[in-house]
Amino acid sequence: MDEHGRCMLCEWRCGANRRDGERGVCGASETEIAYTSVSETLRSYSVTLLCCPFRCAYCNAYRISQYPQSGWIYRGHIEPEELALEAISVIESHGHISNLSFTGGEPSIHTPYIEEMVRRVKEEIDVSVILATNGFSTLEH
Predict the structure, then answer these.
(1) Residue range 77-95, pLDDT digits in tens
(2) Peptide linkage before 68 cis (omega within 30 of 0)
């Protein structure tokens, strides 16, 4: 996002003013969470974010990636500080979780949110960060 809230996070560079609720090519305005989960096998606390700048016919996460057009209802917007506290609590309570992962949809269209959440988590605990992305982000972001 630029200083005026215009979104330039992916290569569409649509300029949607997401701070004022305008939705970009990806469908995102403010960052919204589909759900969070813990994978014991992957030792990861995972945050699944909504929306994607692509419209792949074969997408296995169609309802998440095509939000809000999919019509499904998810967890919604959670302030990054609040989600960071939740993540810290869950990670600490499991004892062996060592990763904080972001998936979706497309997480890179929520980079400022992810950066803020990760910063807050890393102030308290040491975790590795995983980003499952399609790589369509701009070089600047």
Answers:
(1) 999 999 999 999 999 999 8
(2) yes
Kindly list the distances between the CA atom of residue 128 and the CA atoms of 18, 58, 122, in Å, as whole numbers in the listed order: 29, 30, 9
**What is each CA distance from 37 to 40, 79, 86, 91, 110, in whole angstroms?**
10, 17, 11, 11, 18
**Contact assessment for residue 63 and residue 70, using Cβ atoms and an 8 Å cutoff:** yes
In the sheet that holds 33-39, the strands lie side by side as: 33-39, 44-49, 99-104, 128-131
Give the number of C-alpha atoms closer than 13 A to the C-alpha of residue 32, restricted to the C-beta side.
Answer: 23
d(CA 9, CA 108): 7
Residue 139: the pLDDT is 79
For the chain, domain boundaries: 26-131
Do the Cβ atoms of 46 and 62 come closer than 8 Å?
no
What is the model's pTM? 0.92
